[in-house]
Amino acid sequence: MGTVMSELREGERGTVLVLRLPPERTAPLTRLGLLPGTEVLCLRRSPLGDPTAYRFRGTTVALRRQDCACISLKEGIACNTP
Amino acid sequence: MQYTVALAGNPNVGKSTLFNALTGLRQHTGNWTGKTVAPARGSWRDGDRCYEVVDLPGVYSLCGGTPEERIAAEYLQKTPPDCLVIIVDATALERTLALALELQGSGQRPVLCVNLMDEAERLGLHPDLRALERALDAPVVPTRADQPKSVEMLRSVIALTCQRRSTAREQMPPAQTHWTQEETVRGAAALARAVCPQTPRPRRDWDRLLLGKWTAWPLTLGMLFCLFYLTVRGANYPSALLEVLFARLRTGAEALLAGLPEALRMLLLEGVYDTTAKVVSVMLPPMAIFFPLFSVLEDLGLLPRLAFLLDRPFAACGTCGRQGLCMCMGCGCNAVGVTGCRIIPNEKERLAAILTNAMVPCNGRFPTLILLAGLLLNRDGSLSVPATAGVLTGCMLLSCAVTLLSTGLLRKTLLRGASDPFVLELPPFRRPRLARLLLRSLLDRTLRVLGRAIVVAAPAGAVIWTLSRLRVQGAPLLTVLAGDLDPVAALLGFSGTLLLAFLLSFPANELLLPLALLIGGMAAEGGDVTALFVQSGACLRAAFCTALFTLFHWPCSTTLLTVWHETGSLKWTLAAFLLPTAVGVTLCMLANAGFSILS
Questions:
Q1: A58 neighbourhood in chain B, CB within 8 Å
Q2: Are the C-beta atoms of residues A51 and B320 closer than 8 Å to each other?
Q3: CATH classification (class only), B2-195
Q4: A78: which strand partners?
Q5: Which residues of chain B form CATH 3.40.50.300?
Q6: What is the ipTM of this complex?
Q7: B213 lies within 8 A of chain A by CB
Q8: B426 and A CB contact within 8 Å
Q9: Directed axis angle between helix B385-412 and helix B366-377, to 10°?
């Protein structure tokens, strides 16, 4: 069983398996290139704990925990090797 | 011969900069947030050919999910340009090529402009532009910030495309089968990998500092403090200069109007001229300092980071961190803050931000607050700088808290509805191009807001002057009116004179104290404002309640006009008037009651 995107810790990577969000909430994410199969790197959380900045497809995008909790990841989280 | 050229591209690919480089300063409409909402237009000439350039809003796709996407898609469908320039970011081809693929399939004849090539090279990326040209079957032009000549190259390719298009109109490439968004994104990723297989060198990570757990807040607060300090402090000198200048001009105006009847001459001089001069000399310097500084922060890419830091408390109130940015803009001028709300994509969140923006004190209210801060601390109103700064900070915190609470209330009642998923791109830091940037922000923002202020201040000056001259049964009308307002004002904790001044300073908040002096009949006696409060006996109570009402009352007429313009609805404009007023009246009455119980 894989995990969800909001559980990634800073510096961890994962690959998106499926977005379990209603279509109108998926669209803004798809537009930025967040699709099943996209590899995401969790960059850093906002000092107040939410939102979190993720890096995928060469750009940095901040997303809220509420939305990331509905994005499941494939098994096997890799740590970012600096 | 006139050709139209449309610029399309993702946000943050340097589209507006390129637009400015192409058209020089001949832009007809500017945009405030770095986000073009209505297409901006400009032009350049080459002999007898004129190229009209339309800067489409920055979008990720044309599927029509957001207002910007609808505007861009509609424009391209209704008025196909002679040349469509698609701008992509050389450092983020994978993401930005998706729009190019989508547009290529739409039957337009595009030119692909690969921008930020210099930055890509610094990161060790060397995209194969010929391969890109072959894959897209469109001319590809690289542009770079450090070589102005690259824009010339783009111009000539655009010219060539326009001519080819006008001679061979029927030979348009056929529209391809429509890809789904997912296919487009995947196609772009594959293409980007083929064209540019290198992985970028990591950039210097300023975010570690700017968004770091311990460093983020001190740095952000320090930056905002510097912004306000420079604005408030730096504006004093040019303000004084302008006042001297206007006094000189007045002598000239007096001579010019000498032939007119006495009453009309005084109306124009003391009413229209003096009020307008006052508004300009108080408003222009802070705006001329604040807006360019704000533009620098914007160009650096700091504003989205501020939204990233601020999002959590705003999320708790049913809105998003972008509202924090609108509030910062509101500190300069609420009219600008209201326009700035365009950066909030969700319609209801945007309305809530517009309605509450006036609860952040603008430049025009700061002088009043500074004076009241002195009064709150010492009965004689003497100022000590750190204490005043402390009271001002308190005012700001209170105003933020009330803004958040009322936004939350609005989102639970009138403007109920789900929020959109919060998706905020954090672009890489870019060195701002100072000279051009400062000029643009001065021309676009400062002069426009100032123009609107003058349009309101001039007639208002005439009305107020007339009122101040009218007499009822031997007593000045204003004094009588102030007396009539006394019982109402007593509920709020201050005098009728001040309430009338609040009412009459509707055209511009800057007018509050000069008006209070005029009404109180104290203008002649050297204009010591503290007398207004000391006189009323309960100095502390009056000062405190006046400060509250300064923070929370109806927005000025310029701001209301802007609200009307932005919402297109009289109903919401009325709401923008009533909401802060209701909050102010409630808070003042509570404070007043509190003082009564304590004493």
A1: 91-95, 192, 200
A2: no
A3: alpha beta
A4: A13
A5: 2-195
A6: 0.90
A7: yes
A8: yes
A9: 120
